[in-house]
Amino acid sequence: MKRITLYEFQRKYLSTIRTEGVDVTPESLQRFFEVINGLYGREHEVLSLKYDTRRGEYYIKAHGSVGFAYHLGEPRFMIQVLPRPYKRDPDEARSLRFFLSLMNLSGGLGLGRREIEDAVSTYTRGDGSVHELFLYLYVYLLGRELFHGLYREYSEVEEELQTIRGRVLLSRLARRPPLGRDVPVRHAVLDVDTALNRVLKAALEVVVGVSAWEGVARAAEALIRYFADVGSLRQGDIERVAFNPLNERFRPAFHLATMILAGFGKLSRGGFTTPGIFIEMDRLFEDLVYHTILTALAGRGRVHRQHPLPQIVRGAAEIEAKMGAVFTFGPPRPDIFVQMPGGRCILEVKYRNLSVKMGDTWWRKLVRSSGELYQVYSYSRISGGGALIVYPRLRGQYNEWLPDMFDEGVETFSFFDGTPLGIVGYELSRIGRDVLIARRGVVLDGKIAGNVRNLLESVCVGS
Q1: CA angle (387, 8, 278) in 5-degree steps
Q2: Could you state, in order of their start, the residue ranges of all structural domains in the chain?
Q3: How confident is the model at residue 272 (pLDDT cuts 50, 70, 90)?
Q4: Angle between helices 214-224 and 195-210 (to 10 degrees)
Q5: CATH code of the domain occupying 281-459
Q6: CA 462/CA 293 separation, integer angstroms
Q7: Is residue 435 classed exposed, middle or buried when 0-12, 13-18 and 19+ CB atoms within 10 A define those classes?
């Protein structure tokens, strides 16, 4: 199958795509992208089709999501968007390592540094298909847990036995001839045919059917043997899975299994069948900033995700009830809310490049749009504290004019009424040196942790 490859935020013209062997019309792409954006786009589009009036042709624009999707009409092709935060690296290894580390942190995959390196190495030896990376991770994580045994749980069965076991079904026994030898009973057995195991098995079957990496497909076939006594996937199995101390170790594999089943059309999704998986990089980056702040404060304050604030309009509930319409769907929720002994502040995390082309000139911006300033100002006033906006930053490549949030003595500003405002960059070149992304959090060098804490103290004000 032909493949269209883009990097996050990259554009690719249809003339280039046609030279790569994919002769697709703008109309087909538009319909394809509408389905993808409907399935995976929450706050932002995943892919869009735009027209360049200067060149007189269409181009595909990738936004802030990483993943893949299959176009099953004519022509058949796969489109994939790869992570590339380290844009000028000669290969994709560091960008892929960063992406997997964020997935590991956000999704609780439980991968160690060596295991991430193995995944990166396997990908670079393959054919460059990002969907194979998801399949590889699933088979690896599941195999690691199956080494310790398959999960079993008690379930009740009804049988005809010659010995009494469990509860005798008296109503059924009363209808039997008096000399019958078998007794109807209901008793509990430790069974492997559970909702969790049926989900895991179904995802393995998908891997065997679609993976082009021989080692991955072969490993998946070997793991399926563990599920010989497990039935086929049933309607509602995913919703029935409940985790407990005995099966918690399968949670990361289950998370990937549901992505694979949904991505390859094994689950109902509103009538559309567009195989694919997309992960929003801004959500992963937000998780990274959250864990960084959590580590920097080290218990000297409280950090909340999506903390609800009071409505921006006084008496909003009464006004909405009276007029039969709503201002917003739910209360304002900043990405991160920090409460420190000296005050409070909100953080908005934006995974964007601040270079903007206007005409023939590239401009450096401090915020992507004026709406971002209005948003953080309203959030800060409602919360009674200051505001901090965090963008990714990479020295010598993009957003380098923003202050590095890990530096000492970062300069902050204020709004017209004196409300503190900070606009900083999360310097990605520090990852692996001063900042380590671990399985369940972020580890910071002691000095830069203090610098981040001082930055927060400069914008966290009020009661």
Answers
A1: 90
A2: 1-82, 85-125, 127-152+192-274, 153-191, 281-459
A3: very low
A4: 150
A5: 3.40.1350
A6: 19
A7: buried
